[in-house]
Design a protein that fits this description.
Helix 4 (about 105-115) links the parallel strand 4 and strand 5 (about 120-125). The chain folds into 2 domains: about 5-140 and about 260-305, Rossmann fold (3-Layer(aba) Sandwich), CATH 3.40.50; about 145-255, Phosphofructokinase domain (Rossmann fold), CATH 3.40.50. The chain has about 325 residues and is α/β, with parallel strands linked by helices. Helix 1 runs parallel beside helix 9. It is about 40% helix and about 20% strand. The radius of gyration is 22 Å and the shape is elongated. A 7-stranded mixed sheet has the order 3-2-1-4-5-10-11, with helices on both faces. Strands 7-8-6-9 form a 4-stranded parallel sheet, with helices on both faces. The protein starts with a strand and ends with a helix. The structure holds 6-O-phosphono-beta-D-fructofuranose. 6-O-phosphono-beta-D-fructofuranose binds near residues 127 and 171.
C-alpha cells in the first residue's frame, strides 16, 4: 500500500514545473498521503536530499517559472552505484513511490532503475522541445512557443523599420517543433528544422519573391539542430547570394526556458500531476502519464524511450503556403 510519495524534477528546466509539483503535492495530501520533495532531481536521490512537503510549501508557485525543487542532469544516476545509493535513500526515507517530472533521457534512466530495484514510478513529461513519445504536449512547450512568438513580434517591428532580414535561432537540438509552431504563429517567411533537409536554393527563391513583392521585413526561423548549421552560418551563406536586404541574426537561447507558464501549460501540469498520483494509487507503475487527443493515456517507459513521436509534417506545407 502506498503511504508516502516523493516528487522530483530532472533534466533541463521549463515553465510549468512548479504547477506540476503543486498538483502532485496537493493531490497527494487530498488522498491522505505523505508527500516529500527531492532536491536537484536524481542527484538529490543519491545525496539524500529529501524534504517534507505540505500544502503551504506549494502556495503561490503555480504561476512561477523554474522549479522550487531545483533540477540537474545526473551522470551518477547513469552508473549502477549511483542508482543503488538512490534506492537505499528511497527506502531509508520510507518512500513507497516516486513521481518523476522529466524528459526522455530521465525516463531512460528510470527504466534501468526500476529493472534493478522494486520502486513504483510514474513519469510526467516536460520539455520545451515537445519531442516525447506518448503525449501530444509536454509541459513547457506551449509557453516556450509563446515566448518565441512574442520575441519575434518585437523583432518584426525593428526589422520592418529598417527593411531588414532576420535569422532567428530557437531551441530544438533534435527537433523543429518550436521553430515550426512559432514560425507559423509569427508569420516567418521560412522555417528550417532538423526533420527536413534544408535547401539553400529554395530559401533564396522565397527571399527573392519577398523582395519582388516589396516586403519590408523578412524572418527566417532556424531550429538550433538544423542540418545546415546554426543561424549565423546560414545567414552568412544566404548573404552571399541575396544581398538586397540588410541582415541580422538573433539567437533567443535560454529565455525560452524561463517565464510564467501559459494557461495551457498550467492546466496540462495540473491535470498530469493529479493523474499521476491517482495512477500510483490504482497500482500503476513504470509508465508516463500523457494527453493524446485530449484524453489521459499511460505509456510504458520502454515505449516512451524507444518509440519516435510523429512529426506534424503537414504544418510545413501550411507554413510554406502562408509565407507568400
Ligand atoms: O530541453 C532541451 C533543450 O531545450 C534543447 O533544445 C537545447 O539544446 C538544450 O535544452 C540546452 O540545454 P542546456 O543548456 O541546459 O544544456
Amino acid at each position: 500500500m502506498i503511504k508516502k510519495i516523493a516528487v522530483l524534477t530532472t533534466g533541463g528546466d521549463c515553465p510549468g514545473l512548479n504547477s506540476a509539483i503543486r498538483a502532485v503535492v496537493r493531490s497527494g495530501i487530498y488522498y491522505n498521503l505523505q508527500v516529500c520533495g527531492v532536491l536537484r532531481g536524481f542527484e538529490g536521490l543519491i545525496d539524500d536530499q529529501f524534504i517534507e512537503m505540505d500544502s503551504h510549501s506549494v502556495s503561490n508557485i503555480l504561476q512561477r517559472g523554474g522549479t522550487i525543487l531545483k533540477t540537474a542532469r545526473s551522470d551518477r544516476f547513469m552508473e549502477k552505484e549511483g542508482r543503488q545509493k538512490a534506492y537505499d535513500n528511497i527506502v531509508k526515507n520510507g518512500v513507497d513511490a516516486v513521481i518523476v517530472i522529466g524528459g526522455d533521457g530521465s525516463f531512460r534512466g528510470i527504466e534501468t532503475f526500476t529493472s534493478e530495484h522494486p520502486v513504483n514510478v510514474i513519469g510526467i513529461p516536460k520539455t520545451i522541445d515537445n519531442d516525447i513519445y506518448g503525449t501530444d504536449f509536454a509541459i513547457g512547450y506551449d509557453t516556450a512557443v509563446n515566448t518565441v512568438i512574442q520575441a519575434v513580434d518585437k523583432i518584426r517591428d525593428t526589422a520592418a523599420s529598417h527593411d531588414r532580414l532576420f535569422f532567428v535561432e530557437v531551441m530544438g537540438r533534435d527537433t523543429g517543433m518550436i521553430a515550426l509552431f512559432a514560425g507559423i504563429g509569427s508569420g516567418a517567411e521560412a522555417i528550417l528544422i532538423p526533420e527536413t533537409k534544408t535547401k539553400m536554393d529554395r530559401i533564396i527563391e522565397i527571399l527573392e519573391r519577398g523582395w519582388t513583392r516589396k516586403k519590408t521585413s523578412m524572418i527566417v526561423m532556424v531550429a538550433e539542430g538544423d542540418d545546415a548549421g546554426g543561424a549565423y552560418k546560414i545567414a552568412k551563406e544566404v548573404k552571399k547570394r541575396f544581398s538586397q536586404f540588410d541582415t541580422r541574426v538573433s539567437v533567443l537561447g535560454h529565455m525560452q526556458r524561463g517565464g510564467s507558464p501559459t494557461s495551457a501549460d498550467r492546466v496540462l501540469a495540473s491535470r498530469l500531476g493529479v493523474s499521476s498520483v491517482e495512477a500510483l494509487l490504482q497500482g500503476r507503475t513504470n509508465e508516463m502519464a500523457g494527453i493524446v487527443d485530449n484524453k489521459l493515456v499511460f505509456t510504458s517507459f520502454k515505449d516512451v524511450v524507444n518509440k519516435q513521436k510523429d512529426f506534424p509534417y503537414e504544418l510545413m506545407r501550411i507554413a510554406e503556403i502562408l509565407s507568400l
